[in-house]
Amino acid sequence: MSIRESAGVKELHQSYSDPPVEQHPDEAVGPVGPQEPPLGVRALKAGVHTVVALCLVTALVHIVLVFLHVAPSNPVSRRYSSQVNAWVYPLFEQNWRLFAPDPDSFNRQILARTAYTDSKGSVRVSPWLDLAAVDNAAVDHDVFPSHTSQNLLRRAWTSYVETHGGSDTARSERAVMLQQYLRNIAADRVAARNAGVTFDFIQLRVVTVPVPAPGTATGNRPPTPTETRLLPWWKVTSHGK
């Protein structure tokens, strides 16, 4: 057998042993790069990033406005006082001041009485109930006194005075809200002490006594001035008939 015939036999044997390879001349051969995520995934990521950015901006604005609210009076807080108050009140109200502590220097006796109309048309008025004494009794000898018993009624009254001053006429929406807040707290306290008793009106009387400065001798103290304030009768709906 000649050399040419031997090469032909080898080529024929190779053609039967190897599978045919399909050629696609239009396909480009090269390294495969990273594929872009679907449109829905990209939109979701963009939405998450937007929400996170908005939360961060809102948190920063909140911190700045609350800081201006509790900081001592300054040109910035005075210039933007309306914007600061609109953001802080009523949900983010703060009862403390930065760098200027203002401890309560008064003892207050907050009393309440109620009234209702009986079946004969006569108005019945209850005796005075000392709500502050009830709170003090709940705090005394309690290792972990309730924050509500300590501050709820007191803060409601001081907020009422801040918005009303010496008048009992509400001149703003915030004043109306705090008046209703004080009324509802007092009505709830009276109803809790007198279960089953209904009433249509409630009235408060507040006796304020300044606390003497520490270190003052008892004999040298001047007579302590006492302020008594009688509030008008308020209509009560939740504890009425």
TrEMBL record:
Pfam family, one: DUF5819
Matching InterPro entries: DUF5819
Name of protein: Uncharacterized protein
Source species of the chain: Streptomyces lavendulae subsp. lavendulae
